[in-house]
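Structure ticket #2291
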Amino acid sequence: MPMIFQSPGRTVFSKLRENKVKDLRIDKIKVQQKYCDIFDCIKENKATYEMQNSKWLKMKYDLEKCQTNAKLEIVEKEYLLFRDMLSMHISFSILFYLFHLIGIVSFTSLTFVYIVVAYFVLFFCVRTTSKKFVYEVIVQDSLTD
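Resolution: structure written out below.
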């Protein structure tokens, strides 16, 4: 099922293959050599989004198992923080709207603007930090040779 916004782990190898990743820490030659098997599957249209995501997750778990990496932990916690903030914002917005329907609070246009703007800001933060987290796993994996 096609999604409007694919999670970065599902598309990271496709973007690496097409040189669409603008992270200067990623050595393109090293990446082309290290992940050539995945790139071949992508070229032959055999690599699905799920396959790319499972390969990325395996890399992440291998990195976590082998060593404690402070940078990776910080980036992951940052992503989880913004993700949780967005889910709490959605929950509180729905709760606020329900309270408005019951008549406990008043829902003004300014309140609506705040809810929408905060949603988009948090959504942007989640998307940005998730890409940052995925690329950090790639960087750390390319350094472990």
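Closing remark: The CA atoms of residues 84 and 126 lie 9 Å apart.
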